[in-house]
Structures are given as structure tokens and as C-alpha cells.
Specification:
Layout (H helix, E strand, L loop, with lengths): L33 E2 L7 E7 L9 E6 L4 E6 L5 E8 L2 E12 L2 E10 L4 E7 L10 E2 L9 E8 L6 E7 L8 E10 L2 E10 L11 E4 L4 E6 L3 E6 L11 E3 L8 E8 L5 E7 L4 E6 L14 E4 L8 E4 L11 E6 L3 E6 H11 L1
Antiparallel strand pairs: 1-24, 2-3, 3-4, 4-5, 6-7, 7-8, 8-9, 10-11, 11-12, 12-13, 14-15, 15-16, 16-17, 18-19, 19-20, 20-21, 22-23, 23-24
GO molecular function: inositol hexakisphosphate 3-phosphatase activity
Pfam family, one: Phytase
InterPro entries: 6-blade_b-propeller_TolB-like, B-propeller_Phytase
């Protein structure tokens, strides 16, 4: 069941009102099933954690992106049930399952701590730190400022890797990939094993998502398009596989979420941030080409200036029988949608 989780990563804040510079919410926008209690400062990116025995007890972890920020944990009703404070500008967050620590499988949440140039790692669901206070990233680089993060679990051996992006950087090794493992004493260590990824230089790269089953990394090169790479570093393939959606966005292409209908099919959803919509692409590609991504549908949501999103196909109970889509919005909140709402709109476009 967990292999059908979406990793995604990516970024922002929410409000039902908006300034004159922002596009208004569209009249036909989907209405969320729930809106979370607001965080204090500036929400950016969510990640869904699936409870191992009772999916109705699953949680959403969201970043509050501020110098005095933190991670906020919500139940499926949108209530804050836990939080970790004192993280200096946590940008993006992702979750993974079954990292071996002290001989035991441990679910983890990983977030970037931008102002400290490191990633933070917490056990789930208790949100206890297991990183010795933080793990530095982009060491030796002039431009660090970590922003995006997504976790890849390799199917063959269940090794877990963190792919980290930054505010700015080189045009050809913008992303760094770290292998996470037991560092002793119940803490995680991270080993840099790969540097890859093109960057247009137009803006920044926050949103990163990984498809574990198909073995791909997707990331939003803002104001440029979505880029696709092989996820497994042992493949020794740093070639760009696809660069799509280049003319499909009003301004910024941001948060990415991958909905998995089967092990090999589904949808890639990307926030069209200034349009208050999500663009939908075929996960499996098109016309027999796994690297061809035509625009299938445009989904209007009630989110404003959405940075980050996540999705799962797991049945979370009567309100979310075919999964949940979570998206950040201005107003320091996250919106929860029943996947069936989105599927219905996609089907109408076919």
C-alpha cells in the first residue's frame, strides 16, 4: 500500500482574500473538504504520512517558512496535533518509510532549514529529532540556501536518498543527492553521492518530487518548465530525460504531486501558481513515449498562490475514499481535497 504514496515535494502560504496583484480564485474552483488551522507565519509545503495500521489516523506535515518557523502536524480534519519549533526557515518537507535505525524500521520526515544550510530529520509520527541537530548540505559551495527536498526509496534494497535543491546555483549540477543511513546512537547520517540537474537561471528550484516505482525525479525549474531525471544514482545516468510544460504556465511552475492509479499509471500535478490552478500531465507519458507529457487538464482550486502540494491514492476514510490531495495556500493554511473531485474534472477533459 505505501508504495503507492506520492512523494513530492515543494512550497508557500494561503488566504481566501488576495491582493490586486494576485489572480482571483476562479468561480468554478474546487472547494476543499477541510482547511487547516493557520500556522503563525507562512506555510509552504506539505507531506502526507500514512499510518501503518489505520489510514484514518494518517497525518499531514507542513512547513511554516520563517526565521521563527517550524513543522506543523495536522490530522485529517485539519487540526494541529503536534509541532516542532525553532527551525530557521524550513522550506520543503517530505516523508519516507522504513529507514533502519538501531536495527528497527523508522518512518522519517525531512525538511530543509534554509537559514542554517542544512536538512533536519525527524522520526514519525512522534516528530523526534534524529539528526544530531542537523546535517549540512551543499558544503563547499558559495551558493547554498537549501529549499526543495524529496525522498527516493529504491525498490531493490529500500535504500533512502534525499534529493536537495537550492535558491540558486550552477547550471548543470543544481541538485545534490544524499544517501541516508544509520549514523549510530539512533541518529541519521547523510553521504553525498551525486550532483546533477540542469538549471535555467531564471528563478529558483523548490518543488521536487520522486516516483519510487518508476524511478524518476521531477523538479520545477521556475518560469522555465519541469525537468525529469533517473532517480537511482547507481544507474550512472545524469542525462535529462524530459523538459516539459515550458509554455503551460502563467508565470511560476511550482509544487509537484504524483497520483498513482496503478503501479505504472496516473497523473503528475503541478501548481500554476499565479493562475490558482494545477496542470495535469500523464504519469506514464503519451503515444508510447514515457518522456512525452501533453497537458491533460487544468484543475482550478481554491488555493491562492500555491507553492507546495502532495497527494496519495490510499483510502483515508469516507471523506477520501480514493485518496487525498493537499495544497498550500496564502493565509498560512493547507487545503484538503477528496481525490474524486479532481478525477471527475480530469475525466471531463478526456
Amino acid at each position: 500500500m505505501r508504495n503507492f504514496l506520492i512523494a513530492i515535494t515543494t512550497i508557500g502560504a494561503l488566504s481566501i482574500s488576495c491582493s490586486d496583484k494576485l489572480a482571483p480564485v476562479k468561480p468554478n474552483a474546487l472547494k476543499p473538504i477541510a482547511i487547516t488551522e493557520p500556522a503563525p507565519h507562512d506555510t509552504d509545503d506539505p507531506a502526507i504520512w500514512i499510518h501503518p495500521t489505520d489510514a484514518s489516523k494518517s497525518l499531514i506535515i507542513g512547513t511554516d517558512k520563517d526565521t521563527e518557523g517550524g513543522l506543523y502536524v495536522y490530522n485529517l480534519e485539519g487540526k494541529i496535533v503536534n509541532k516542532v519549533l525553532g527551525i530557521k526557515r524550513p522550506n520543503n518537507v517530505d516523508v519516507a518509510y522504513g529507514l533502519i535505525l538501531n536495527g528497527k524500521k523508522t518512518d522519517i520526515a525531512v525538511t530543509t532549514e534554509r537559514e542554517m544550510n542544512r536538512i533536519r530529520i525527524f522520526s514519525l509520527p512522534d516528530m523526534k529529532p534524529i539528526d544530531n541537530g542537523g546535517i549540512p548540505v551543499f558544503e563547499g559551495e558559495v551558493e547554498r540556501d537549501p529549499m526543495g527536498v524529496s525522498l527516493y526509496t529504491r525498490p531493490s534494497d529500500k535504500s533512502i536518498f534525499a534529493i536537495v535543491g537550492r535558491k540558486s546555483g550552477p547550471t548543470d549540477t543544481y541538485l545534490w543527492q544524499y544517501k541516508l543511513s544509520d549514523g549510530g546512537s539512533g541518529n541519521v547520517k547523510a553521504e553525498i553521492i551525486r550532483k546533477f540537474g540542469k538549471y535555467s537561471g531564471k528563478k529558483e528550484i523548490e518543488a521536487i518530487a520522486v516516483d519510487n516505482e518508476l524511478g524518476y525525479i521531477y523538479y520545477s525549474d521556475e518560469q522555465s518548465g519541469m525537468r525529469k531525471y533517473v532517480a537511482d544514482p547507481d544507474a550512472k545516468n545524469n542525462n535529462e530525460l524530459a523538459f516539459f510544460g515550458q509554455k503551460d504556465f502563467k508565470e511560476d511552475n511550482e509544487g509537484i504531486a504524483i497520483y498513482k492509479k496503478t503501479a505504472t499509471t496516473g497523473y503528475i500535478l503541478v501548481s500554476n501558481q499565479q493562475d490558482n490552478t494545477f496542470n495535469v500531465y500523464p504519469r506514464e507519458g503519451a503515444n508510447g513515449n514515457p518522456n512525452e507529457y501533453p497537458l491533460l487538464a487544468v484543475i482550478p482550486t481554491s488555493t491562492v498562490e500555491c507553492d507546495g502540494a502532495d497527494v496519495t491514492n490510499i483510502n483515508l476514510g469516507p471523506k477520501y475514499p480514493n485518496g487525498m490531495f493537499v495544497a498550500m495556500s496564502n493565509g498560512m493554511t493547507f487545503h484538503f481535497y477528496d481525490w474524486n473531485q479532481i478525477q471527475e474534472l480530469i475525466d471531463k477533459k478526456k
